């Protein structure tokens, strides 16, 4: 038995205290977001606990004071010990207040809570080898997932990802037909539709409650006249002749991603493009031993792999499949050109084509 290294032990315990502190912050942050405490703090500037309780709509001061001290200990808000005032810096506001910020993280906290809620079902799947149907593991996993991805979509789809594709911006501007496969609650589809009013869009997802949410969002944003949402798996899509197919953060969740690739080839025009947005990952596990890989591996254990194993084939790619594996899967569907067109801190964007 190896001899205990006391310094390593203390370092590891220190890491665990930090990790547990982050875990313990999940419910208090979610309460603060739902009750508008972060927004009230941003609106008022430096304020006492009693003032913050009043500014947030007449909450109970004793709870608000403990909450504010917890967030100050987290480093999520600032505390002046002399004045006993709390405040929110511009950087903290980017995470907790500005909903269109690329680092707005409300959805991430909700997703963490959904993973904890789904723990018993995933544990059962560990024992049986089965899967957990998408949307069944937690009360609103699909809502949390949509909220988690939305900031990245708001800041990247139109600005960076679509312009990186070969000739697609011109097609969209002149009236392309687009299929958004695995559209979830429709954020990606609607963002594209608002940016390209001459194009028409169909969002497909196999989860009917997500499609219902997507239709509601389309009406709210006034694009329901040229955006349609359909409940269908990727291989059930009957329409063809699309100029562009998009798949945002979903190929690795599919039970049969190879069958999906084959069907995407069939529904695309011969000069069309398939844009596949996937979590950033290296091709070898050791390349993913970093903060982003840590998030994705844990989420993949609790969500992505169980979702895939519940479906037909159940390939279980996982959120950290890597470019080489994803490209092999895409090429197996008959695509001759697969290239990475964008690399970001959280995502990679691949373009698949039938011709150069």
Automatic annotation (TrEMBL):
GO: which molecular function terms? methyltransferase activity
Q: Where is the S-adenosylmethionine-dependent methyltransferase Rv2258c-like winged HTH domain?
A: 29-95
Give the Gene3D superfamilies listed for this entry. Answer: Vaccinia Virus protein VP39
Q: Which GO terms describe its biological process?
A: methylation
**What are the alphabetically sorted keywords of the record?**
Methyltransferase, Transferase
CDD domains, alphabetized: AdoMet_MTases
Report the InterPro entries cross-referenced here.
Methyltranfer_dom, SAM-binding_MTase, SAM-dependent_MTases_sf, WHD_Rv2258c
In this protein, which residues make up the domain named Methyltransferase? Answer: 174-280
| Name by which UniProt lists this protein | Class I SAM-dependent methyltransferase
Q: Which organism is it from?
A: Microvirga aerilata
Source organism lineage? Answer: Bacteria, Pseudomonadati, Pseudomonadota, Alphaproteobacteria, Hyphomicrobiales
């Amino acid at each position: 038995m190896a001899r205990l290294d006391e310094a390593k032990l203390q370092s590891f315990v220190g890491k665990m205290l930090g990790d547990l502190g982050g875990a313990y912050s999940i419910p208090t942050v979610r309460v603060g977001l739902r009750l508008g405490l972060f927004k009230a703090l941003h609106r008022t500037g430096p304020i006492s606990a009693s003032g913050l309780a009043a500014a947030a709509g007449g909450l109970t001061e004793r709870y608000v004071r403990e909450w504010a001290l917890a967030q100050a200990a987290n480093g999520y808000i600032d505390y002046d010990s002399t004045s006993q005032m709390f405040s929110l810096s511009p950087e903290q506001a980017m995470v907790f207040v500005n909903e269109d910020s690329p680092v707005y993280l409300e959805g991430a906290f909700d997703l963490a809570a959904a993973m904890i809620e789904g723990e018993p079902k995933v544990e059962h799947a560990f024992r049986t080898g089965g899967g957990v149907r998408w949307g069944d593991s937690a009360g609103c996993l699909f809502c949390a997932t949509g909220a988690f991805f939305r900031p990245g979509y708001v800041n990247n789809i139109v600005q960076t990802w679509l312009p990186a594709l070969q000739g697609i911006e011109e097609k969209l501007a002149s009236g392309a037909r687009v299929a958004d496969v695995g559209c979830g609650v429709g954020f990606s589809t609607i963002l594209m539709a608002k940016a390209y009013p001459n194009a028409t869009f169909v969002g497909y997802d196999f989860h009917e409650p997500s499609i219902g949410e997507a239709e509601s969002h389309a009406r709210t944003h006034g694009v329901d006249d040229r955006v349609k949402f359909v409940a269908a798996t990727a291989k059930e899509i009957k329409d063809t002749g699309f100029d562009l197919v998009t798949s945002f953060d979903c190929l690795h969740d599919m039970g049969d991603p190879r069958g999906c690739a084959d069907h995407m080839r069939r529904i695309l025009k011969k000069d069309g493009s398939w844009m596949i947005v996937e979590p950033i990952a290296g091709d070898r596990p050791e390349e993913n031993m970093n903060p982003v890989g840590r998030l994705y591996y844990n989420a993949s254990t609790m969500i992505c792999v169980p979702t895939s194993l519940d479906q037909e084939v159940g390939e279980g790619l996982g959120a950290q499949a890597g470019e080489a594996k994803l490209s092999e899967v895409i090429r197996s569907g008959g695509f001759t050109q697969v290239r990475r067109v964008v690399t970001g801190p959280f995502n990679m964007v691949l373009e698949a084509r039938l011709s150069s």
